[in-house]
Amino acid sequence: MKRIYAMLAVMLLSVGLLAGCGGQEKAADSGKHLSAALYWFGESVDPAHEWDGWTVTRIGAGETLVTVSDKMEFTPQLADKWEATSPTTWRFHIRENVKFQDGTPMTPELVKASLERTLKESARSQKSSKIKGLKVEGQDLVIETTEPHGALLASLTEPAFVILNTKADLSNVASAPVLTGPYQIVGFKKGEEIQLKRNEYYWDGTPGLDTLTVKNLEDDNKRAMALQSGDVNLIQRCNSANRSLFENASYKIDEIVGVRVYMLRMNFDGVLKDANLRRAVSYAVNYDDLAKIEGNGAVVAGAPFPPNIGPKYQESLREHMDLAKAEELLKAAGYTEKNAEGYVTKDGKPLELTINVWGSKTELYEAVQNQLKKAGIKVNLRRVQNSEEAKTKRDFDLTESNWVTMGTNDPYWYMDQTLRSTSLENVGHYANPEVDKLLDAMVTAADANRRMELAGKIQDLVLQDVPNLYLVCPTNQVVAQSNVKGVVVHPIDYYLITKDLTVDGK
Q1: What dihedral angle (degrees, nearest 10) is formed by the CA atoms of 48, 50, 56, 58?
Q2: Domains defined along the chain, listed by start
Q3: pLDDT tens digit sequence for 370-379
C-alpha cells in the first residue's frame, strides 16, 4: 500500500511539474516580443560612458530633456518647454508626472543630479555643452554656460545626457541604469545581448511591446542571416549585397537619407590652391554614377549637407558634372595642351593628383580616378593607415573623409571642425575670413532658424570656394519582417526603438 501511495505521489508531482512547466512556457510566450539586431554595441549601458549612450537611445531605454524628431526638428521630451533668457542662460521646464523605471518620481533636482553626473563622467560632454552651472527654480532647471553657446539645445539631445536616477544603486549602472524610456534594461551581456521589458511607469502611453531582445551583430552578413532565419525580427542596416534577400512580401525595407556625407578634402598647400583647378575637378566628377556605385539607396551629395537635411543652398552652386566647364577652367589655370596619354599639361608638365584612401571600401575613389582621367587629369590612389595622416603628412592633393553633418540636429560642430581656418580637423587648410565670421555669429545665435540661416550662408560660400568634393550620402535602413509595425527609420541612426514599435500576431 505504501508503495502504491508513493507511486501516486510521484505521478501527481510529475503532473504538477508538467503543469507548472506548461504554465511558465505559456507565460513566456504571452505578450508581444521582438528581437532586433544592431550593428554596434557600446561597452556598457551607462549613458555617460564614452559613446555608450547611443546604444541606450537606440534600444528605447533612455531619454533626454530634448530630442530630435525623424523630421529633424527639436522636440520636447523630459523637458516640455525651454527658452534662452540670455546669451549664457537657458531655462528648461521639467515635465511633471514622469517616473523613473523603478517608480521614483523624476524631479528637477534628480534631473540636475543626472546632468551633473554626466558632466563629471564625460569630458567630451563637458566640452560640447560648455555648462558652467545648474540650479533648480521650482519646476525649472536653469543652465548657465561658460560663454554664449547657441548650440546648447542640440548638445543636450546627445545620448550622453540621457537622464538617469542617481538615487538608485549606481554600483551596477554599467549594466542596469534606471532610466525613463519605454523599455527597461533587465539583462546585459557585454558585446552580445540586451534584454528589456516594458516600463510599467512610462509617462507617454503604453509601449507596444512587452519584452525586447537586442543583439549585437556587427557583421553585415550575420545580421542578414539572422533576419532571414527568423532569429530576429528586425535589423539595423543592410548592405547592398544582401538587400535582394528582403525585397519581397515577407519583409519591408524602411530607409531614409542619413546625416553622413562622404567627401574628398582638397589640400590648399599644393597645386589645388588654384580655385580654377578645384572647380575643374568638381565639374569632372559624375556624382550620379558615384551614388549608383555606393548603392543601397545612396543619393548624390553635391553640397556640404545631405538633400533635405540642414541648411538650404543656392541650387546653381551645387556641384555637378560638366566636362565642357571643366575643360574651360583647366585652360584658365594654364593647362591648355594634352600629352600623348591624353592628360592636360602646363609648360609641358601633366596635371597629376594624389588621393589618399584609408577606408575598407575604395570603389568610390577608383571611380573618381577614372572620371578625372576622362577630363585629362591623372590621379594616383595611395593607401594610408588612417585619416589622421592627413594632419601630419601634407603630400596629398585630396584625401578621403566622411562626416556626420547634423548628429545633434545642429550644423555648427561639423562646419566649425571642417571649415574654420584654425581647426585641426581642417586638413586641407581652407581659409575664408567670411566663413570664420559667420561661424562666430553661430556661436551666439540661440534661435534654431537663425543658426540655419547662418549655416546656409556658409554653405553658399563653400560651394563657391570648393574646399571639398561632396560626393554621396548613404541611407539609414531598418529591415523587418512584414508583421513588425511602427518602424521609424531616423536620419540620425542612434534613434531606433520607440514606444510605437510592435509586432502583429503575437
Answers
A1: 140
A2: 36-256+476-503 (3.40.190.10), 260-473 (3.10.105.10)
A3: 999 999 999 9
